[in-house]
Specification:
The protein is α/β, with parallel strands linked by helices. It has helices at residues 24-32, 54-57, 64-69, 97-101, 120-129, 141-144, 202-213, 223-235, 253-266, 293-312, 383-395, 400-403; strands at 6-8, 15-17, 42-48, 58-59, 81-82, 88-89, 105-112, 165-168, 183-185, 273-278, 319-325, 345-351, 358-360, 381-382. It has a single domain, classed as Alkaline Phosphatase, subunit A. Helix 9 packs parallel to helix 10.
């Protein structure tokens, strides 16, 4: 199937005009978008690097011990954006309120990795590999989730899109490393062809090297299509992309990443899984409360995600976004008006099929006898249980023993946050 004159991709995000040939994966996307039976499903994973303070993000304002342990950095009840009478959002996250009220946003509290490490490096590695406590895993769970995954393609005998698995950043992250082809995009404006331009972003070399050195049959043989796709992105002039009117991305790396991801998704380039991250969560000193460090990064985090959701328009109904961080913070504030490395945390799950408007997971309490090692929020939901439900029930990969080897969670134990 080919188009020789003009292809307008869904929602007008990219218009490819006057091309002599269109890569087959673009043709599949353009024709598949018109067929409701071939609607794509996408999973976007966002990592909050640095160990976010879940207790000041989704505040247990109905828990007296919370205020007793955080005399200077607590979020006052009058400032909390109440959710259900017990939990509430930090006031900097007002952009999440509409998503909650529309039942698109769900929260899983006291969630995270069961491994007790307080090392940023190890904890992030475990959550990206999907094998807590095991350092020898050589690939990431999001890459493994692509194996045996139902194709987004309308024409299943055609090559997969080179944009099937994408990370927004200068290099491929741990979570997407593995046998399945994946690409990192740092900046669409620098996404170039040739690999010999010294001024080009590192991603161009990474992208081309994937084809030059790959022996994987999924990617092998699609080099011309890959480079045609890059040329199309360049000719579309990504710098002139205009988000939807109600998509107000904040300035900065994270907002720019999600804006570029929305552009690629709206262009129907076959994205199935995507990854982005945001740093700035390691608040040992002067964390702040309604204002300060945590308020600033939470505003960037929530506004960027809300803008991304609004920018997708009707495509948001076929998208699920999951957030996670390597571990939480101590329940008590420290002597520097900050928090130290903790244990359990909070996860957000946003999407069309999500049963939102609810805080999931068993709340363990913050009395001293209920704390993990007498200092941290205790873990009641393994992060792999949340991800397993999304991977199997939404994306359709039932082989969870491959995606999360060694994990004994069963479908009947799912949080049941998907409709």
């Amino acid at each position: 199937m080919s188009i020789t004159r003009r292809v307008f991709l869904r929602n007008g995000a990219l218009a490819v005009v006057g091309t002599t040939a269109v890569p087959s994966f673009l043709a599949r996307a353009a024709f598949g978008a018109a067929d409701p039976g071939t609607r794509s499903k996408r999973l976007v994973v966002i990592f909050q690097r640095g160990a976010a303070d879940g207790l000041n993000i989704v505040v247990p304002h109905g828990e007296p011990a919370y205020y007793a342990m955080r005399p200077t950095i607590n979020i006052p009840k009058k400032s909390v954006l109440d959710l259900d009478g017990f939990f509430g959002l930090h006031p900097a996250m007002a952009s999440f309120q509409p998503l909650w009220k529309q039942n698109h946003l769900a929260i899983v509290h006291a969630a995270g990795s069961p491994d007790p490490t307080r090392s940023h490096f190890d904890a992030q590695d475990f959550m990206e590999s999907g094998t807590p406590g095991l350092k020898v895993t050589d690939d990431g769970w999001l890459n493994r989730a692509l194996r045996d995954l139902p194709s987004n393609s309308a024409l299943h005998d055609s090559p997969q899109s080179p944009f099937r698995a994408i990370a927004l950043g200068p290099s491929l992250p741990r979570i997407l490393s593995g046998q399945e082809p994946a690409v990192a995009v740092n900046n669409l404006n620098d996404f170039s062809v040739g690999g010999k331009n010294p001024s080009a972003a590192p991603i161009s070399n990474t992208f081309e090297a994937m084809y030059d050195h790959s022996v994987d049959t999924v990617l092998h043989g699609t080099g011309e299509e890959t480079f045609d796709a890059v040329k199309m992105l360049k000719s579309a002039d990504p710098s002139k992309y205009t988000p939807a009117p109600n998509a107000n991305y904040p300035k900065g790396r994270f907002g720019d990443s999600l804006k570029q991801l929305a552009q690629i998704i709206k262009a129907n380039l076959g994205v199935q899984v995507a990854f982005a991250d945001i740093g700035g969560w390691d608040h040992h000193v002067n964390e702040g409360n309604t204002e300060g460090q945590i308020a600033n990064v939470l505003g960037d985090f929530s506004q960027s995600i809300a803008a991304f959701w609004n920018d997708l328009g009707d495509l948001a109904e076929d998208t699920v976004v999951v957030t996670m961080s390597e571990f939480g913070r101590t329940a008590r504030e420290n002597g520097n008006r900050g928090t130290d490395h903790g244990h359990a945390n909070v996860m957000f799950v946003l999407g069309g099929p999500v049963r939102g408007g609810k805080v999931y997971g068993r709340w363990p309490g913050l009395d001293r006898s209920q704390l993990y090692e007498g200092r941290d929020l205790a873990l009641t939901t393994d992060f792999r249980m949340v991800l397993s439900e999304v991977v199997s029930r939404y994306l359709g990969n039932k082989d969870l023993k491959t995606v999360f080897p060694g994990f004994e969670g069963q479908p009947e134990q799912f949080v049941k946050l998907l409709g």
